[in-house]
Amino acid sequence: MKIQDDISQFNPNDSVIEISHLQKSFNGLHVLKDLSLKVHRGENVVVLGKSGIGKSVLIKCIVGLIQPDNGSLKVFGKEISDMTLKELNLLRTKVGFIFQGNALYDSMTVRENLEFPLRRNKVLKDPHEIEVLIEEALRDVNLLDTINKMPSELSGGMKKRIGVARTLILKPEIILYDEPTTGLDPLTSREISKLILQIQTKFKTSSIIITHDLNCAKITSNRLLILQDGIFRAEGSFDDLKNSDDEWVRSYFKIE
Amino acid sequence: MRLNIRKIFGNFLNDTSDKSWLYNFLLELGGLSKFTLQFFRELFRPPYEHKEFLRQAYKIGLSTLPLIGITAFIMGLVLTLQSKPVMENFGAESWLPGMISVSIVREIGPVITALICAGKIGSGIGAELGSMRVTEQIDAMEVSGTNPMNYLVVTRVLSTTFMIPILVLYADAISFYGSYVAVNMHDFISLRLFLNLAFDSLHFYDLIPAMIKTFFFGFAIGIIGCYKGYYSENGTEGVGKAANSAVVISSLVIFIIDLIAVQLADLFNIFLR
After folding, report:
1. Which of A88, A100, A120 to mutate to test the interface with B (most CBs of B within 10 A)?
2. Of A8, A60, B148, B164, which one's alpha carbon is 20 to 30 angstroms from that of B201?
């Protein structure tokens, strides 16, 4: 497959995600005005910003769930808008997405949730190999004992972990997290943040993490960006931004 | 004389600000047509989800069996009790089983069963896919590189298309029994004689067009339920709306299909006779 060759031949020193002058509006409301961003291999980029400002729109554009109005969006050096649906689907197996509400298939057990992307993408056909992979993914998130449970039997934190396991099972090189700690208690939020960090270290993934949670940002970020009025207003490490000269940037960290 | 569509419908078509009924109707019709074309494209594209198809067919069939059974029994019973005095006035009581069987097989059985299924199955599909849409489960399928249309829509539409005719046959049989019970409330007639009289009046050209239209009823219930659920929006309110409009639209479409089928069946009968 051409797209798989492109990914395998991709220069590791290049940015895995390259966004330039991205624009998106809904019913005349300009959500993303002129957004540019590069995500390097193995890097965790955290995007902070108020609710409804377009953070989730940004990562949904990356996986092709939302079509941008203008601008360039390259993943592994390939322009998303130039891809056919088949190519986009192949690329999507290399880009994991963790949804804010987990989006577990509630009519399926945990095992079936994890099996679904493997079976549908024909990654593996041998049932034994699939079983091994499912158990491995569940072990990575410390939830092997939930394998036969339904999503409705799991707690919020467990659902989040299963969502991560379902993404990990396809061995993605990029993971996009949409508010991974929203709705969780501080302790579970911390566990999820640590899990994100573990995944980065173990699987050498690159990530964009959309969050409001400063503790999560502090634990997971290599680089932090603040989105305001459709553009990135500030960029730097967590400590740099926290001690910024700009009062507006510092105001984000005052509630910590 | 050439009709100027824009001149006639201009105000409706241009008036998109307050979303005129014609604009919404055309938008809906276009969306449904595109969705149906997508269904046929995905129908022949692997992977084929046999297991999910069978699961859906089992779910659809089993969940509606009691409801259809009770309704069909009452339908046969009431139809017979209502028709009996009229037939007696004409001294044509012995024609009652024949008249009931033709009414049930040709019209009442298929239409009532399809309407029940539109209410139960159509709303169920609309609500299920609608809640999958608002909880981002459909998006999750898309971003994992799988095709949700193939897994969710094709399996459901195929199962309604093939299960509705089976449910109609079941409803017809139960209705016959209801009718037999009604006849025996006042007179005595053996089941064998009742069935002989009923089937004597039935012909090949009564059954075949009636059965063919049930496949279309099933297809309409499935595709409309899936369409409304798949494109549901505005959170939980949208799920309710999807389920509701799936029932309303598919019920209306069932009557339209029935109207067309009756005309075609008449042609078919003339040709066979």
Report:
1. A120
2. B164
